[in-house]
Automatic annotation (TrEMBL):
GO terms for cellular component: dendrite. It holds the Pfam family Neurochondrin. Belongs to the neurochondrin family. This is Neurochondrin. GO terms for biological process: neuron projection development; regulation of neuronal synaptic plasticity.
Length: 712
């Protein structure tokens, strides 16, 4: 309690006779006036912090909750007694009781939370000692409740977060205690706090940001440590960007010791994680600030990781990783980048050195450290670098590849631990609680883009094959594919799942082209082919998943050409369903579109294909080529294509549009399919002739098709 009082006797000296006399009077009180007088005497005799548990319990047994409850809710005070005096006495008693953790969690205390919260923002004389004492006691009660296992939840539900925000923003007596309690509640239950009191918390964030921008003394370093806790789990309000960036620029642009600089780097990393580069202004000042951030981060990473035996400040280095990721994103951005070309060149150079330090560190990691969150964070930044740059540090990367495959395999086989590691990495430096969507929970997904680039190169590809990466990737693909299969709600899946599947397909496409022997001999690719065949028919019917369907169809067609002797491809229901779906994907890409002022239509992209054709066209042309190659290898395929009416409809489409509207590469792709179908099956040739195939071939100068159809 905050009331003035005489100290209680030490327990070893026996009971306090004065307190005993007052407690006796309290027990013998016959009416409210006598009880009130006795309570005043009790509160003057003890301080909550100066009495032991037994004495506190004896006071509670003598007082109970009934009379304090009446004191807190009474609306009529005795003549000459200010109404807040009664409430102050009730709060003082609760503060005494709350010193006992068991009593702090008592329902009779918890149901007072809404009342106590209102006291924090009640108006009154700021110099009134009784009011100040009541406010101190109120904070003591609420802090004690917050320290119980379920206390934060009760405080949030009772409106305490909003009350604390208003008390802090009002800068009245005890506002510093409001901030301290807010910090504790946000650390314990960030999501719930923001859900219940977002407008008030944003107001505090705006206030702290303004203070941070204006601070000229040591308080700016304290605010650096506080601000990450008050950044919302989703998006930081744009109105805070200027103040936060300006405050950080002033700090990081000065010569500082590490204890001053590190909190600023961690705050910048938190902002980068939440907002990307949106919080950094465009123009010269913004580009210089971003370059400064990335340079400082790279220096910190090198200092921490290059020296063997140096204790690594993992939270700081992880924050620097986030700033390096921001640098990688901006250096690879073609449009509206904050950086100028010379700055990009300089930053790529310093980031290359920092990534070299990361590789050096990972080469030292033993099996006993593989499950540590900092290792996961280090693999993550390396994956971000390899996704964009594999030509530099090639020797070092090849040296590290065996470790990366083993590491990814370990976490894949212990997927739950991988998710937990992602949580721990986020806790390490980026977010006070849960990780954001850019922190996927498995190491393999982080490495997929880099491995996609590396499988094109002979040396790295041979290492990946030797270490068993293809088999691991097949298992991973099949596991991730299960998440998208019927029975699972794909609407709640993060985009990273589908992106990961597409990247796996790209890796497999590279292996099909560069290591066909591997596809033929490794049993995992037979399982993969079976999954592709059974999955594509449903996939091509789903809205919004055309790009994934294109990857699956093209990969399946290329693999079918290599695995054409497999029993699974000999006209089985699964193989027929797959090729029917592949034909659907290939045949629906273009339509005839009328043009104003012209009698003849033009060949145009279908609406569904048009928006993503830049990402789709290479797969489509490759798919057409692969289908063409499958026709002579699978005798049943040409009759199946004829039954689908694809060759007839294709000739009909070409006959209905202006030849000038069909690009040469399209003519070549269409002719390749039509020629192979005509060569493989007499009925196909006859159907094409009936569809004016020879005339169409002549119009489009398809000499090979024209010759094929002229033969019996």
């Amino acid at each position: 309690m905050a009331s003035d009082c005489e100290p209680a006797l030490n327990q070893a000296e026996g009971r306090n006779p004065t307190l005993e006399r007052y407690l006796g009077a309290l027990r013998e009180a016959k009416n409210d006036s006598e009880q009130f007088a006795a309570l005043l005497l009790v509160t003057k005799a003890v301080k909550a912090g100066d009495i032991d548990v037994k004495t506190r319990r004896r006071i509670f047994d003598a007082v109970g909750f009934t009379f304090p409850n009446r004191l807190l809710t009474t609306k009529e005070a005795p003549d000459g007694c200010p109404d807040h005096v009664l409430r102050a006495l009730g709060v003082a008693l609760l503060a005494c009781f709350c010193s006992d953790p068991e009593l702090a969690a008592h329902p009779q205390v918890l149901n007072k939370i809404p009342i106590l919260s209102t006291f924090l923002t009640a108006r009154g004389d700021p110099d009134d000692a009784a009011r100040r004492s009541m406010i101190d006691d109120t904070y003591q009660c609420l802090t004690a409740v917050a320290g119980t296992p379920r206390g934060p939840r009760h405080l949030i539900a009772g409106g305490t977060v909003s009350a604390l925000c208003q008390a802090y923003l009002g800068h009245g007596y005890g506002f510093d205690q409001a901030l301290a309690l807010l910090v504790g509640l946000l650390a314990a239950a960030e999501t719930q706090c923001w859900k219940e009191a977002e407008p008030d918390l944003l107001a505090v964030l705006r206030g702290l940001s303004e203070d941070f921008q204006k601070a000229e003394d040591a308080s700016k370093f304290e605010l650096c440590q506080l601000l990450p806790l008050f950044l919302p789990p989703t998006t930081v309000p744009p109105e805070c960007y200027r103040d936060l960036q300006a405050g950080l620029a002033r700090i990081l642009g000065s010569k500082l010791s590490s204890w001053q600089r590190n909190p600023a780097l961690k705050l910048a990393a938190r902002l980068a994680h939440a907002c990307g580069s949106d919080w950094i202004p465009a123009g010269s000042s913004g580009s210089k600030f971003l370059a400064l951030l990335v340079n400082l981060a790279c220096v910190e990473v090198r200092l921490a990781l290059e020296e063997t035996g140096t204790e690594v400040k993992e939270d700081v280095v992880t924050a620097c990783y986030a700033l390096m990721e921001l640098g990688i994103q901006e250096c690879t951005r073609c449009e509206q980048s904050l950086l100028k070309e010379p700055q990009k060149v300089q930053l790529v150079s310093v980031m290359k050195e920092a990534i070299g330090a990361v590789i050096h560190y990972l080469l030292q990691v033993g099996s006993e450290k593989q499950k540590e969150p900092f290792v996961f964070a280090s693999v993550r930044i390396l994956g971000a670098w390899l996704a964009e740059e594999t030509s530099s540090l090639r020797k070092e990367v090849c040296q590290l590849l065996p470790f990366l495959v083993r590491y990814a395999k370990t976490l894949y086989e212990e997927a739950e631990e991988a998710n937990d590691l992602s949580q721990q990495v986020a806790n390490l430096a980026i977010s006070p609680t849960t990780p954001g969507p850019t922190w996927p929970g498995d190491a393999l997904r982080l490495l997929l883009p880099g491995w996609c680039h590396l499988t094109v190169e002979d040396g790295p590809r041979e290492i990946l094959i030797k270490e068993g990466a293809p088999s691991l990737l097949c298992k991973y693909f099949l596991q991730q594919w299960e998440l998208t299969s019927p029975g699972h709600d794909t609407s709640v899946l993060p985009d990273s799942v589908e992106i990961g599947l597409q990247t796996c397909c790209h890796i497999f496409l590279n292996l099909v082209v560069t290591a066909p022997g591997l596809i033929k001999r490794d049993a995992c690719f037979t399982s993969l082919m079976n999954t592709l065949m059974t999955s594509l028919p449903a996939l091509v019917q789903q809205q919004g998943r055309l790009l994934l369907a294109a990857n699956v169809a093209t990969l399946g067609l290329l693999m079918a050409r290599l695995l054409s002797t497999s029993p699974a491809l000999q006209g089985t229901p699964a193989s027929r369903g797959f090729f029917a779906a592949a034909i659907l994907f290939l045949s629906q890409s273009h339509v005839a579109r009328a043009t104003p002022g012209s009698d003849q239509a033009v060949l145009a992209l279908s609406p569904e294909y048009e928006g993503i054709w830049a990402d789709l066209q290479e797969l489509w042309f490759l798919g057409m080529q692969a289908f063409t190659g499958c026709v002579p290898l699978l005798p049943w395929l040409a009759p199946a294509a004829l039954r689908s009416r694809w060759p007839q409809e294709l000739l009909q489409l070409l006959g209905s549009v202006s030849p000038n509207s069909v690009k040469p590469e399209m003519v070549a792709a269409y002719q390749g399919v039509l020629v192979e179908l005509a060569r493989a099956n007499r009925l196909c040739r006859e159907a094409m002739r009936l569809q004016a195939g020879e005339e169409t071939a002549s119009h489009y100068r398809m000499a090979a098709l024209e010759q094929c159809l002229s033969e019996p």
